[in-house]
Specification:
- By secondary structure, this protein is an alpha+beta fold.
- The chain has one domain: Pnp Oxidase, Chain A.
- About 30% of the residues lie in helices and about 40% in strands.
- It contains 4 helices and 7 strands; from the N terminus they run H-E-E-E-H-E-E-H-E-H-E.
- Strands 1-2-3-6-5-4 form a 6-stranded antiparallel beta barrel.
- The longest helix is centred in the first third of the chain and has 15 residues.
- The two termini are about 15 Å apart.
Amino acid sequence: MTDTGSISKVTDIINHSHIGMMSTINEEGALVSRPLAVQEVKDDGDMWFFTGLGTSQVAHVRADPRVNVSFGKNTEWVSVAGTAEVVTDRETIREKWNQAVEAWFPDGPDTPEVCLLRVDSDSAEYWTSPGGTAATVLQWVKSKVTHSRMSVGESGTVEL
């Protein structure tokens, strides 16, 4: 697959998953993950998330911007490594605002607590298993019967 095709595969998986597990590094150096809804993913894999200024993810990003965001849906998965920044610019917040965000911030985009995390994606690894769960089970049975390594689909690494 070409780089363009691989990047498209990564962004397709993200767009179909909607919720990613964002991992940050806490004060003790341990990895911490939490689910966040991706608001936008650019063609180059960069992503935007709404959150609150008082959250642990904001504190962690301010101390160490290295992040990983993983997404999965059905038989497709992607893990994106990058750096994040906290964005408090009200105009950008208003531009990216949507009704779904109001579930967390009912007072709207001018809520003082509201901010964005922008992830500058560096690289991604993806895995797909075409044909769904049934095809995966069939491949597993085939590998057991033939004593061969299971082949379940496509995987790749792409620089973003």
